[in-house]
């Protein structure tokens, strides 16, 4: 399976080092590249809007573009190009991508909105309340549908 459509026998697949097989893994490289590009776009967009560098944007979730959607889309497309779009491996990757994107626009988006409301409630508590000094919850957890679907080439 590691050789894919290259036609090499299993004895020649195991002669190279494991690091060279990871480096030449087209779907893995595509998924990682999509993640890095999406996070970089967020990083520079954040700097452009706020005129300050926010290193959290390089690894944080939420915002535009969706690095989760970019990653699973890059993975699915690379598998499709390498293994064929009619195979079960592509079908598995496509379903995974759909689940991740559905989750990003559903559960995670609404959890972020709930965090927003809870933070506002805590902010309005009197200073003597035990929760008044609690650390705010992260609000940017999910994505709006446009943030997710703008990264999907097979829409």
UniProtKB/TrEMBL annotation:
Keyword terms: Membrane, Transmembrane, Transmembrane helix
Record field: transmembrane: 26-45, 57-79, 85-104
Top-rank taxon: Eukaryota
Name of the protein in its database record: Uncharacterized protein
Provenance organism: Turnera subulata
